[in-house]
Amino acid sequence: MTAGASSPRVLVWNEGVHEEIDPGVAARYPRGIHGTIAEALGRLIPGAEVGTATLAEPEHGLTEEALAQTDVLLWWGHIAHDRVDDEIVERVKRHVLGGMGLVVLHSAHFSKIFISLMGTSCALQWRDEGERELVWCVAPEHPIARGIPFPLVIDEQETYAEHFDIPAPDELVFISSFSGGEVFRSGVTYTRGRGRIFYFSPGDQAYPVYDHPDVQRVLANGVEWATPLSREREPIVVLNPPRDWFEKPRG
Prior knowledge:
Mean pLDDT: 89
Low-confidence stretches: 244-251
CATH superfamily of the domain at 9-120 and 187-233: Class I glutamine amidotransferase (GATase) domain
Number of strands: 9
Order of helices and strands: EHHHEHEHEHEEEEEH
CATH topology of the domain at 9-120 and 187-233: Rossmann fold
Number of helices: 7
CATH class of the domain at 9-120 and 187-233: Alpha Beta
Shape: globular
């Protein structure tokens, strides 16, 4: 372990819509994308307690109780971002600011929670022709890069490309290049409040990327890195000063 508790409590969240409407995705990920990721994390992180939740569950499976018992939340979404309740997003954000780790996956760059935490559009360029992606590590000493080959090769994947409208990362860990010449900041970290955030782009419902052992290792490393050192969740209080407060003379 590189940080945090020795037995992290992990929750893998997936909107779970593609698996219900697309037989190809259901065949590719018979346990759901969340199930595939959860199985890998349970195998790769000794002692980890790994659960799953989906959009269709009451409160999207992200109840106050569930989040209070979560050290790191992984988030996968694509076509149902708008169906995530705003109140739940604010609940997740409060827990991240208080210390819960967050790993944001692939098209969840457009999730409400990631956009809210970044404060930008999080838009990017993309196309999907199943081309090869090479994931290059630019921070080889970073804990998230532990045990990852240089480069990590993904034979078929959706192409993401710059410009990626995110704030300057605290740390840039991976950059991807694609067969068409595109490049993309595919692995970046942030701290918001007391919570650590890792965004990792490789992974798509149309390709078996989450079965790739090196991708699974990156996710396991990301969970370990994002696990808080303490399980005491720091309450975040947002103060709203009177409008004229900023106009009063100081000194």
